Amino acid sequence: MQRQGTTPPLFRRGPPAEVRLAVLVVLSLALLLVDARMRVLEPVRQLVAIALYPFQRAVMAPRDLAQQIDEWVNAANLIRSENEALQRQRIELAQVTTHAAQLAAENAQLRRLLGVADQAPQPATVVEVLYEPADAFQQRLVFNKGRKAGLAAGMPVIDEGGVVGQIVRVTPMTAEAALVTDERVSIPVQVLRNGLRLIAFGANTPGTIEVRYLAANADIREGDTIVTSGVGGLFPAGLPVARITAVERDTSSGFARALAEPLAHPERYRHFLVLQADVAQAELDKQEADLGGPQ
Amino acid sequence: MDRSNPPARPRLGPPANVHPERLAHPAHGAFVWGSLLGVWLLSLLPWRQWPASPDVLALVIAFWCAHEPRRVGLVTAFVFGLLLDVHDAGLLGGHALAYTLVAYGSVALHRRLQRFELWSQAMHMLPVFLLSQFVSQIMLAWLAGRWPGWDWALGALLTVAIWPMVGWVLLLPQRHPDDVESSAG
């Protein structure tokens, strides 16, 4: 009974603070280096993430509830404005649809004639943003579905504007996506106007994509729309990615660089679509290409 | 009229902002860990997206390192840092490094800090918060290959600015021994 309230002796006779400091600082530095260079720490991160998940959900619950109440209270207004937008869209799309149907039929016929295999339609999953991690070094979103819903690293994320980003890490219940503006994302794209194939990189500032490694005389100008080219197998062809805002031509190096503004708006919406691309197949294709590449 | 003026302040002795008799009551363990857990849960909310937001979790860890160095120490700081690293989807060890350094600064200064009132404590902690964040940001910037700007420094300043307020709240139960008694029972 008398021991109640006293601290356990472990804390009184532990190693001095300097020793603990040295050990922990070395440990954190080692973690930083290993995590930045290798993927060995993924299991540790997964374990901690799974342990964190219930707390994250519990903390976010009041916010989600407030949002739901807000949506419920404003339901009439929301539906009216949405209805107007949809009506307008319907009229605009009606013409395009008939035209597209005609083109699709024609395309299918031509493909059959040429013997080109049809692209299988990809299944998709709707995900909702769980939270936006606070990190000055990267642009990420965390979604509320993970491996259990069939998501895997590498799958593209889209919204109605176009490509939002790519899943980079999954836990059983959550998935982490890097936005197209994150510097670790690169997407094979082409210019819609002339079919010029390029690679788009995240410039790591909100709202900027960079198109690098252009020949200085490449036919690309301000206002061009770039769409996914389908090269690489992960991103299906034809998804809008960005609109070119500036082209910098450097005659001394012989290369040009274009800056673009993404067409998707991840900051405005909470729901996105993850295309369940065949990640394993794309990886296999890449390996084959790598093996066959150098001759 | 009362003419008996109080005697002039002696020039020697502790300065006006030092109160050696204060805080004789130790904090209740449940309160210490409860406040840490609460602030950690608060840190999972999206308000930290502003790059210069004050780091309340680091503040509370540092505060308990200074006032209850036997309960809260470097290992606690490291573990909470690691949890935050996973939540923020950043490199493992970034927050852990900063928090460990803050905790060490706080533990190293704890005898001195306990003698001062809260604003003076905040002034003592300013270099600790700035330096620890700086070391962590230098490491992250080196690994990422670019400098993230100085928002984190503003964050450290804001953290120090709210130290007196947070400290006042955390010291409340110790100011009223009756409350501690009733919560202990």
How many separate domains make up the residues of chain A? 3
Q: Any idea what the shape of chain A is?
A: globular
Derived from helix and strand composition plus strand pairing, the structural class of chain A reads alpha+beta
Largest sheet properties of chain A: 6 strands, antiparallel, barrel
In the CATH hierarchy, the architecture of the largest domain in chain A is Beta Barrel
Tally of contiguous helical segments of chain B: 9
What's the assembly state of these chains? heterodimer
The outline of chain B comes out as globular
Description:
The complex is a heterodimer of chains A (295) and B (185). Chain A has 295 residues and is α+β, with helices and mostly antiparallel strands. Chain A folds into three domains: 9-58, no CATH class; 74-118, no CATH class; 123-295, Rod shape-determining protein MreC, domain 1 (Thrombin, subunit H, Beta Barrel). Chain A is 38% helix and 26% strand. Chain A has helices spanning 9-12, 17-37, 42-73, 75-114, 279-292, and strands at residues 124-131, 140-143, 156-159, 162-170, 175-179, 186-191, 197-202, 209-215, 225-228, 240-250, 255-262, 271-275. Chain A is globular and about 75 Å long. Chain B is globular and about 55 Å long. Chain B has nine helices and no strands. Chain B starts with 28 loop residues before the first helix and ends with a helix. The chains are: A alpha+beta (295), B mainly alpha (185).
